[in-house]
Amino acid sequence: MTYQWYPGHMTKTIRQIEDQIKLIDLVIEIVDSRIPASSRNPDLDRLSQGRQRMILFGKPDLADEKANEAWMRYFKEQGLHPYACDLRSNHALKNLTPQIREVCKEKIERDRRKGIMNRPIRAMVAGIPNVGKSTFINSFSGSSSLKTGNRPGVTKGRQWIRISKEVELLDTPGLLWPKFEDQSVGLKIALIGSMPDDILNKEELALDLIRMLLSRYPDCLKERYGLDSVTDAPGILEEIAKRRGALKKGGETDIAKAAVLLLDDFRSGRLGRMTLEIP
Description:
Layout: H1 8-20, E1 26-32, H2 43-47, E2 52-58, H3 65-77, E3 82-84, H4 96-103, H5 105-113, E4 121-126, H6 133-141, E5 159-162, E6 167-171, H7 183-191, H8 202-216, H9 218-225, H10 233-243, H11 255-268
Parallel strand pairs: 1-2, 1-4, 2-3, 4-6
Antiparallel strand pairs: 5-6
């Protein structure tokens, strides 16, 4: 299966960002902690030139703890100012404003020399669909001004949100890029739910997930589903159907239902904490 999704509103989003970037001091990019590299849109590197950058780890509680630490070190070495916490928690985000001030200290000092005092830092929040941008903004601002949902495409337009007298945020819709040169990137983006499931063959997606887990976290499938000697992806999906009661009339296994069960278990963290790529 070819993994690709680039609806027309994303082209419009690119134009909006190009128009707004001149107003921006800082780009806060949210990535999914399970795929920190694949969930970074390469177009943001071009669009963000000349701006300070922060990387926020979304859903770190679903990712491998040691891998989170490795990715934090990696992004620090790249000069991208990583920050990991529960983006749903206002309490967990209380230290983010001082971090933003530190990242933007040169901008603050330039303003001071010009006699401009207390101008808020303007930060754009960006990322691929369904990584938690609106959830983060709602938590950070202590309100629920933005719609959120566990599916891509909930945020449709840009919105300015004043966090405090020090920080203003520009929310942007989730943004992918026109073509995945590496289809493994598209696969991982599909696995975390950043493409609509209804455009995907979920059985093939589940089989690709099983193959990936067999190479990185082989024990998780055995522990979750009580599997023993089955080692090939189709056989494992068949066994999941049997053991989870995913059966059609007459007792035939319902592979489509088993695929949905497996994907839901992965996305919710019921398979355990796991990261699908390392630095």
